User: Fold this.
Amino acid sequence: MARTDKNPARPQFPSTSTTGAERLHEDEWSDSMNIVVCVKQIPDPAVPGELDPETKTLKREGKLILDESDSYGVEMALQLADTAGGGDVTLVSLAPNDEVSGLRTALAMGAAKAVLVSDPEFLGTDALTTSKVIAKAVERVGDVDLVLTATESTDGYTGTIPAQVGELLGWPSLTFAKEVEITDGTVKVQRQTEAGYDVVEASLPAVVSVTAGVVEPRYPSFKGIMAAKSKPVDTLAATDIGFEAGQVGWAGAGQQITKVEAAPERQAGEKIEDDGDAHERVVEFLDTLKVI
Amino acid sequence: MGIPKVWVFAEAADGELTSATLELLTKAREIGDSVEAVYVGDDAAAVAGPAGEHGATTLYAAPTDGMLIGAVGAAALAKLVAEHSPDLVLFAQSYDGRDAIARLSAKLDRTVLTNGASIAVDGDTVTVGTAIFGGNTLVDTAFGADKPGLAAFRPKSFAAEPSGGAAAQVVAVEGIDLGRAGEAKVLEHHVEELEGPKLEDATVVVSGGRGIGAAENYEPLVEELAKALKGASGASRAIVDAGWVPYSKQVGQTGKIVKPKVYIALGISGATQHMVGMKSSDNIIAVNKDPEAPIFSVADLGVVGDVHKVVPKIIEAIKSRS
Assistant:
C-alpha cells in the first residue's frame, strides 16, 4: 500500500475496515506495498557463544543462521504484502563478512531480494552505527512503505535498532507490536505494554518492531529454497553507501569493552528421580522456604 | 566526587513511579552530585513526591497528548539535554524506557548501553556491566568522552531506598518537536487483568517450557501451581515463540529478568537464553524429564520426572494444606 500522496485518487476507507466482510471493495484501494525487513545472521544460539579475546566481539566464524526472531518479521511482511495485493519484500542486513546463508533462508520463505552491507570494518560496530547503515540501505532500496524489525537480536540484544532507524529516517516507529494491520496508508498495531497492550496508529511510511510469536513463520518449501538461490543479493561495502572508515566498527562506537570475566558459578543442589513421591520433597522444600 | 549531573527517565504505572524508576533514582543519588528526573505523563504533581523522596530535586514533565511516551520522552530529553547538559541519563529496561533511549540516541548521536546490571564510576569514566551468554560472562563497557552517556538497566539491578528528600520541583517542558514521530497516536489502552503479582515483583515464579507439551497444558500446570503459591507465571522463549503464551511472560535474555525467592522451572531445559533471566533467584526448583538438562546445574532441587505426573500432585498437596 503506497502512501496517500502516491495515489491521491484512491478512495478513503475507515481505518477499521480490515476484516473479512467489510473488505468487499478491497481491490478498489489495494495497491502494492514495499516492505523492508531488517534481518540478522547470527551464530547458532544452540552453540555456546564465545568472545574473541583480541577484539572482544562475539566470535562469528562458523556458519551463520537467520536469527529466529527475524523470521517473524519476514512472515509478517509476506502476509502484509499479500493482503495489500502485492509488492516487494526486501531484506536488509549487515555483516562483517559475505555470509548469506541466513539471508537465503528468508529469501526461501518468500522475500524477493536482499541488500547486504558487508564490511570487515563492521567488527565492533555499535547499535547506533548499525542503525545508520540500515537507514542508508533503506533509502537505497527506495520507495519503502514499511520497515519491519524484531524487537532485539538474539546474540547482541541491545534492542534499540527499530526506534533508532525510525528517528534516522524521520519516520514514526511503533515498537513491540504483537499485531499489525495496514489500512489505506495507515499502520495500526497492538503495542505490548507492562499492563497489557495499547492500540497505536501512525501513517506510512513507518518502522514497526514485532515481538516473537506474533505469526507462524512458514517453512521454506523446496521450490522456495531452489528459487532463493537465484534471487538477487545486492552486496555493498560501507563506503558504497557513504560511510568512511572510522565511522563504523570500534572506531565509530562511542563505547569500549574494558573487562570480560566469568560470572560466579551457581552450584547444583539436590537432584532426585521421581518414583511417584518426588512431589513430597518439593512441597517439603517449599515449606522450609516458607512460601506455603 | 561523583558525576555532576545524573538524570533519570522516570516512568509510572497506575499513577505511581515504577519500582525500576525508584531503583534508578537511588543509584543516581549514589553516583551523582545532583539528580533530576524527566517524566512523561499527565500526573507529574502526583509523582513529584516519591521522585523527590528518592533523590530527584527537579522533575521535568511533559504531557503525553495521546502520543507514545517514548517518543515524547526522547523529544523532551533532546531539548532538555541541549539546555542543561547532563552527564549521564539512566533509563529502565522497560518497553517505554527502551523506546525512549533508542530514539534519544539517534537524536543526540550518542551510543547506548542497554541491559545494564551494574554501573561504576571512576573519575570521568562511567562503566556499565552486563551479563552475556546466559549470565556466565560479565562484560564491562565504558562510555567514550561524548556526553551524556545513555544507559538502560534491568529492573532489580539496584535497591530502591528513599532519601527523605522533599518533593521534586515540577518544571513543565514546553515547545517539544516530535517531528513525524508525533504522528503515532495511542488510540486505546487495554489492561489485561492480571491475577496475582507481577512477574518481576513476585516472591514465587513458576515458568513453563516446551516440556509441558502443548499450549493447553500451560494453564493447568504452570498457572495453577503459580496460583497455589500466590506467585506469577512465566515462560521460556521457546513457548513464547511457539505462540503458546504472550511475550510479556517471557523470562530470559530477551524477556524479563526475575529474582524471586523461589523460581520453579517446569519442562524447561535451561538454554542460556533462559538462564540469564532467572539464575539470580534465591532458590531454584526444576522438574524435567531429561536428567542431562542444563537447568539441573543451577537447581537447588531438581526432580527428574514427568511434569504431567509430578506437578498435579504438588498442586494437590499444597491445596490440601490450606
Remarks:
- Chain B has two domains: 3-183, 204-321.
